[in-house]
Design a protein that fits this description.
20 helices, alpha+beta, about 50% helix, transferase, 4-stranded antiparallel β-sheet, Thymidylate_synthase_ThyX_sf, about 475 residues, 9 strands, 3-stranded antiparallel β-sheet, binds flavin-adenine dinucleotide, Gyrase A, domain 2
């Protein structure tokens, strides 16, 4: 008789993560049930298994079955960038859109202890935070008059409705030293990779945070992250490449430049869709698509993309075509953009060299002059510090300053990012970017691009004019 199907959970309350990982790994060679395998294991046997198979023979994927939930509090947003650089993990952090920062909620880098510029750093951060706090009620007034309380709305509901709108503007003051909390769910393999990056990092804070994470992780996965250490390759290559790339920083001609896309992208994507559900060679599928009339192609794309809502992603075959963008946006916006994991993101170091943006509401709140003064102050402090240590200098850079990044993403990820970030509840920096990316994608792949779920109620030009004095 056919054995009965079984589905059950391995209980993380009673089985440590390393034991769960071994239980799953052993099914590869053992005919026993998972329950029986787990019953025979101890923490010591699990550790010995991992030493032999994961560490010794490099069967590293086994470590993916050991999952940790790590709470990190009061790390700088600059350090969080490295922590969040792993694409195979999940993060939720303190939001600059929904929470407010206190006047001393910023990181004091140990590298600066006793340094002649230490006081200047502290003074600049304190000034930025003071201005942030003074701006909150003033910008709130502007937003409150723009979005008045409705007759059917109580005070608390209205406050919730306008809160993110004025906090969204004031976040431009916050420097990368601002402290945040982040919850991380990550498997032991991805964690080991992240720790290697953190322990190889030029900033002391990132290395110390890496060490602390490693220590707490070892209490539940004693073997799997034991050997995570600094990697000489990761330590040596960035400074070497930085030296090779030395040159004067200039602004890009286009803040959202579509640099490259696949030739014959649409034929390729449609052929991939047919290929997946057929027994054709790819060349046969490609020829089939190439022979279709425009109307037939449109009808095919309509079936593939035409009836989706933003919660139903298109089929995976849309990943076979991609786009490379060079984008420049404010650091606050970049910090949100980097959370999209299904793309390749290469940010340049955070600096003040590309200048800063000015939200329109800052001027409306009567803060134009003081905003410029404090941004100039941050710029000067950054430049003074950067001569000595550009990594440490980055702590002082406010969210208003521009950051440039290279992005490679496939159509499916672009579809998701544009739907999510052009939506009315997204931050205006991201809405502007999503609209412009959509426009570029539509220009080179119009057949597919017409089905992007881009918010039809505004354009990037309207967003720019409405929210930015200087974008
Ligand atoms: C309105 C709004 C409010 C937000 N507020 C906060 C906040 O307060 N704090 C905060 O930290 N972040 C916040 N975010 C960011 C959000 O949590 C996501 O990190 C971000 O939008 C990236 O998008 P994504 O997770 O959909 O997927 P991406 O990383 O862009 O990945 C694309 C798709 O791949 C799949 N995917 C990727 N990784 C995984 C995974 N590990 N497991 C399962 N599926 C995966 C999902 O289907 C996902 O939609 C907010 C976002 C929005 C839109």
């Amino acid at each position: 008789m056919c054995p009965e199907r079984q589905v059950y959970l391995l209980d993380p309350q009673s089985l440590p993560p390393e034991t769960i990982a071994v239980t799953f790994a052993k099914t590869s060679r053992s005919p026993q049930s998972f329950r029986d395998i787990a019953a025979e294991l101890t923490a010591e046997k699990s550790a010995a298994f991992h030493e032999k198979w994961v560490v010794g023979y490099g069967h590293a994927s086994v470590a993916e079955h050991a999952v940790l939930h790590i709470a990190v509090e009061n790390a700088s947003r600059l350090a969080i960038e490295t922590l969040e650089s792993c694409r195979l993990a999940s993060y939720t952090e303190k939001s600059t859109r929904y929470q407010k920062w206190g006047s001393e909620d910023f990181f004091h880098p140990p590298e600066l202890a006793g340094h002649p510029l230490e006081n200047r750093y502290l003074e600049t951060c304190r000034t930025l935070f003071e201005h942030y706090q003074q701006a909150l009620p003033k910008v709130r007034e502007v937003i409150a008059s723009e979005y008045p309380c409705q007759p059917d709305e109580d005070e608390a509901t209205w406050e919730r409705r306008i809160r993110s709108k004025y906090v969204d503007v004031c976040r431009f003051y916050l420097p990368a030293a601002a402290l945040a909390n982040v919850g991380v769910t990550i498997n032991a393999r991805a964690l080991e990779h992240t720790l290697r990056k953190m322990l190889s990092h030029p900033l002391e804070e990132v290395r110390a945070l890496g060490t602390e994470i490693k220590n707490v992780a070892r209490s539940v996965v004693p073997t799997l992250v034991k050997y995570a250490d600094a990697v000489p390759y990761l330590q040596a290559l960035p400074p070497f490449l930085a030296q090779e790339a030395e040159g004067t920083p200039i602004a890009s001609d286009d803040w959202c430049h579509l640099i490259a896309w696949d030739a014959e992208a649409e034929t390729l994507a449609l052929a991939a869709c047919l290929f997946r559900y057929s027994h054709l060679t790819f060349e046969q599928a490609r020829k089939k698509v190439a022979a279709l009339t425009v109307e037939e192609k449109t009808a095919l794309v309509q079936r593939i993309l035409g009836n989706l809502d933003r919660f139903t992603p298109p089929i995976r075959e849309l990943e076979h075509i991609g786009y490379t963008f060079e984008v420049t946006l404010d650091q606050g916006g970049y910090f949100e953009l980097k959370r999209h994991r299904m793309m390749t993101l290469s940010p340049q170091p955070l600096s003040t060299y590309l200048g800063y943006t000015i939200p329109r509401a800052i001027e409306a709140a009567g803060l134009y002059d003081s905003y410029n003064r404090v941004m100039e102050m941050a710029d000067q402090t950054y430049r003074a510090l950067a001569v000595w240590n550009p990594e440490v200098a980055a702590y002082v850079v406010p969210n208003a300053f521009r950051r440039r990044a290279l992005i490679r993403l496939n159509f499916r990820q672009a579809w998701h990012l544009i739907a999510l970030r052009s939506a009315a509840n997204a931050h205006f920096s991201l809405r502007r970017l999503a609209q412009r990316m959509a426009e570029r994608i539509q220009a080179v792949t119009p057949l597919l691009g017409q089905f992007l779920l881009v918010n039809p109620d505004e354009t990037w030009q309207q967003i720019e004019a409405r929210y930015f004095l200087r974008a």
